[in-house]
Write a structure and sequence with these properties.
Alpha-Beta Plaits; 172 residues; five-stranded antiparallel beta sheet; SH3 type barrels; alpha+beta
Length: 172
């Protein structure tokens, strides 16, 4: 069986959640759960000021687009392409192009599960990037974004820094 990849479907603006719901119902009705694995409308928290009060609301990260994790074949292409509200896939002509690892990372989508050998309050050392050779204490672990938040001393103050799992090692 082919490998499932993330594709981007273009929708009418404002129809993203309707497309997601319709697509999930079609997947269930046609028993395509093994071929179309997940449908997402990426959201982000935004702080808005209204009448002098701050309010956190969720907004669409990419209005007019829906992410679909699927095995690309004629049937899955047809199902997604012919869902009401979908205008096509992102890619040249009618050929969908899957998202690359670099494009998926900021969306919080990970392709493989990473195991780490440290937990909160462990001391770790940064082995790559701008904070290389810095030692810090783990405050928070985010498995979705594959990052760890550590505290480092900067200008005499404890400062939280978010670093990728790939750039840190447990201090022995």
């Amino acid at each position: 069986m082919a490998e499932a990849k993330w594709y981007v479907a273009h929708t009418y603006s404002g129809y993203e959640n309707k497309v997601k719901a319709d697509l999930e119902k079609t997947i269930e009705n046609r028993h395509l759960q093994d071929e179309i694995l997940e449908v997402r409308v990426p959201m982000q928290d935004v702080v808005e000021m209204k009448n002098g009060t701050k309010k956190t609301v969720q907004k669409k990260l990419f209005p007019g687009y829906v992410l679909v994790n699927m095995v690309m074949n004629d049937e899955t292409w047809y199902v997604v392409r012919n869902t009401r509200g979908v205008t096509g896939f992102v890619g040249p002509g009618s050929k969908p192009v899957p998202l690359s690892e670099a494009e998926m990372k900021p969306l919080g989508i990970r392709s493989e599960n990473v195991t780490i050998d440290f937990t909160e309050n462990d001391a770790i050392v940064v082995v790559a990037g701008a904070w290389k050779d810095t030692v810090g204490v783990v405050q928070k672990i985010d498995y979705n974004k594959q990052t760890v938040t550590i505290t480092v001393e900067l200008f005499g103050r404890e400062t939280p820094v978010e670093i990728s799992f790939a750039e840190v090692r447990k201090l022995q």
